[in-house]
From TrEMBL:
Domain MDMPI C-terminal: 143-238
Domain annotation Mycothiol-dependent maleylpyruvate isomerase metal-binding: ranges: 6-130
Source organism of this protein record: Planotetraspora silvatica
One example GO MF annotation: metal ion binding
Name of this protein: Maleylpyruvate isomerase family mycothiol-dependent enzyme
Alphabetical list of NCBIfam families matching this protein: maleylpyruvate isomerase family mycothiol-dependent enzyme (TIGR03083)
One CC-aspect GO term: plasma membrane
Length: 249
C-alpha cells in the first residue's frame, strides 16, 4: 500500500468535509469536541509528527509548542495549513531517512512509522466529521483492513508496555472482514500472561465479529455500534462487550 498517497487522499477528503461544516458543530464521537477542535487536532498532529521526525526527537514533544501549530483564521488558509502539515511530514521523512529512529508513544520507531499512523488518524477523524455532519462515510476495504491491523499492532505494543489486556486469557476474538480480502481480512486475537497478541488467520474463536472492513473498523473504534453498521456478533457477546469497554477510542 502506498501510505503517502493514501495520507494525502484522506487528508484532502477530511479537508473537504471541514469546508462544509460550521466550526461550532459538535462531534458526538469525540465527546466535548467541536468540528473546529477536531480540525485543529488533525492538522496540528501532522505538524507534531513532522517536527518529531525533522528534529529527530527522542522524548515526548508537547503539541502546544509545535511550530505553526495553529491554523490561519480564514478557511482557505486553514485548509492549506492542514494539507501543508501532511506534506511537511513526508518531506521530513525523506530528509532524515525512512529508517531513522524517532520517538513515538510506543517507543522508538523508524521515521516512516509516522506516515501510516497519521494516515489512519485522518481516516478515523474523517469518519468523526462525517458522522457529525450526518453525511455518508465509506472507506476502501484494503485501507480499512490496514487500519484495523495498525490499531491492533498499537494495542499489542501498549500491552507490552504495561496496559491491561482487553481480553480475558480464556477468550479468543475472531474478526472477519467479508470483503474477500483473504488472510488480510481476518484477525485472531488472544491474550496471555504476556499481554495481547494477534495474527492473520482463519479459526474458531470464543466470539466472532463479521462485517465489511470499513464497518468493522468503525465498530472496533466505537464510532458506530455493531448493530448500526450490520456487523454480526457470533458466540459469547460478553467478550465483545469487554473488548469495547477495555480499549481506547
Amino acid at each position: 500500500m502506498d501510505y503517502v498517497a493514501a495520507l494525502f487522499e484522506q487528508n484532502e477528503l477530511f479537508g473537504e468535509l471541514i469546508r462544509k461544516a460550521g466550526p461550532s458543530t459538535p462531534v458526538p464521537t469525540c465527546p466535548g469536541w467541536t468540528i473546529q477542535q477536531l480540525f485543529r487536532h488533525v492538522g496540528r498532529g501532522h505538524r507534531w509528527a513532522a517536527q518529531i521526525v525533522r528534529d529527530r526527537v527522542t522524548d515526548y514533544l508537547d503539541p502546544r509548542v509545535v511550530r505553526d501549530g495553529k491554523p490561519p483564521s480564514d478557511l482557505d488558509g486553514a485548509i492549506e495549513w492542514l494539507h501543508g502539515g501532511a506534506r511537511a511530514l513526508v518531506e521530513a521523512i525523506a530528509d532524515v531517512g525512512e529508517d531513522t529512529p524517532v520517538w513515538t508513544f510506543l517507543g522508538p520507531r523508524p521515521a516512516a512509522w509516522w506516515v501510516r499512523r497519521r494516515l489512519h488518524e485522518a481516516t478515523v477523524h474523517r469518519a468523526d466529521a462525517a458522522l457529525a455532519l450526518g453525511v455518508p462515510y465509506d472507506l476502501a476495504a484494503p485501507l480499512a483492513a490496514d487500519g484495523i491491523t495498525e490499531w491492533l499492532d498499537r494495542l499489542a505494543a501498549a500491552q507490552r508496555n504495561g496496559d491491561p489486556a482487553p481480553l480475558d486469557t480464556d477468550a479468543v476474538l475472531h474478526l472477519h472482514a467479508t470483503d474477500g480480502l483473504g488472510p488480510a481480512g481476518e484477525w485472531m486475537i488472544r491474550a496471555d500472561k504476556d499481554g495481547m497478541s494477534w495474527e492473520h488467520e482463519h479459526g474458531e474463536g470464543t466470539t466472532a465479529v463479521r462485517g465489511r472492513a470499513a464497518d468493522l473498523l468503525l465498530a472496533l473504534l466505537r464510532r458506530r455500534s455493531a448493530a448500526d453498521v450490520s456487523v454480526q456478533i457470533l458466540g459469547a457477546q460478553e467478550v465483545w462487550t469487554n473488548w469495547l469497554n477495555r480499549t481506547p477510542l
